[in-house]
From TrEMBL:
<dbReference type="InterPro" id="IPR040647">
    <property type="entry name" value="SPIN-DOC_Znf-C2H2"/>
</dbReference>
<feature type="domain" description="SPIN-DOC-like zinc-finger">
    <location>
        <begin position="18"/>
        <end position="72"/>
    </location>
</feature>
<protein>
    <submittedName>
        <fullName>General transcription factor II-I repeat domain-containing 2-like protein</fullName>
    </submittedName>
</protein>
<dbReference type="Pfam" id="PF18658">
    <property type="entry name" value="zf-C2H2_12"/>
</dbReference>
<feature type="region of interest" description="Disordered">
    <location>
        <begin position="249"/>
        <end position="270"/>
    </location>
</feature>
<feature type="compositionally biased region" description="Basic residues">
    <location>
        <begin position="256"/>
        <end position="270"/>
    </location>
</feature>
Length: 296
């Protein structure tokens, strides 16, 4: 049986850029690649043969006339030009990133204040007027700020998704958690079910967040409310066997004698499955209030 020698990978060779290549072939190292100072092309493999071939075939006739001090001076000049060009690109990227970050910050403020998404464009117009007076030289930075209604809506959606993903990540390490339910109507007379979660991990770090806000269309019976609760818990990846408490707002559908959400949820709580002492930070109060749970 013939034995084939495994091929050697370039990364395993640990090649390093040699300083002498700058004067010999007008190359410098940038981000792990050899960059030609003359044409700005990159050579991925740091191998002298590759650099020499590039220099000989593309620039040898023109730059071979430079010798010693003149060659060194020319290489220094080309390096300075490359650095200046890279700095320009870096500044442009930095300004663009800052504009995007500012867009997220303003969108978050609009969401927290409950303002319409169209307020973003109004705020941008205000900032442009202020820039005209205080810092005219930086007005272009404010002008690059995107705060249209569609952009603000997208930013808020992305922020919301990121917060929910962070909550799911934290929920994955809960040793125990409890939920609080508050069902009420909004100004359009539609029922809304607010579900809060409070969990604790092995390091006794407590997390309290709004888990979900569910619109209740039609009936708001205990069965309907519990269905929304179950869906919210499933979406968040919370295991039922770590649920140790349910707190309600005292509404009849929550605390009724025959059918109540707290009682239905209590059947899903597997008593005795939580052995951690962190369970003492959470308790079962089916007829309590949301405020009582969040202030435990």
């Amino acid at each position: 049986m013939s034995y084939s020698k495994p091929k050697r990978k370039v990364d395993d060779e640990h090649r390093q850029f040699q300083e002498r290549w700058t004067l010999q072939y007008f190359f410098v190292e940038f981000n792990g690649n050899a960059t030609c100072l003359i044409c700005k092309e990159k050579v991925a493999v740091l191998k002298e043969y590759n650099l020499k071939r590039h220099y000989s075939t593309k620039h040898g006739d023109q730059y071979e006339k430079y010798q010693e001090d003149e060659r060194k001076k020319r290489a220094t000049q080309l390096q300075r030009e490359l650095t200046s060009q890279q700095s320009l690109f870096y500044k442009a990227k930095k300004d663009a990133d800052a504009a995007v970050e500012a867009s997220y910050v303003v969108s978050e403020m609009i969401a927290k204040a409950g303002k319409p998404f169209t307020e973003g464009q109004f705020m941008k117009d205000c900032m442009l007027k202020v820039a005209d007076i205080l810092c005219p030289e930086k007005k272009n930075m404010f002008n690059n700020l995107s705060l249209s209604a569609n952009t603000v809506a997208e930013r808020i959606t992305e922020l919301s998704s990121d917060i929910y993903d962070q909550l799911r990540e934290k929920a994955g390490v809960f040793t125990a958690y409890s939920v609080a339910l508050d069902e009420s109507t909004d100004k359009t007379d539609n029922a809304q079910l607010a579900i809060f979660v409070r969990g604790i991990n092995e390091k006794f770090e407590v997390t309290e967040e709004l888990l979900s806000l569910c619109p209740m269309h039609g009936r708001t019976t205990a069965k309907d409310i519990f269905q929304q609760l179950g869906d919210a818990i499933t979406r968040a990846g919370l295991p039922w066997d770590r649920l140790v408490g349910i707190t309600t707002d005292g509404a009849p559908s929550m605390t009724g004698k025959k059918k109540r959400t707290g009682g239905t949820g209590a059947k899903r709580v597997r008593r005795g499955t939580c052995r951690s002492s962190s369970c003492s930070a959470l308790h079962y109060t089916p007829t309590g209030t949301v405020q009582q749970m969040l202030k435990i």
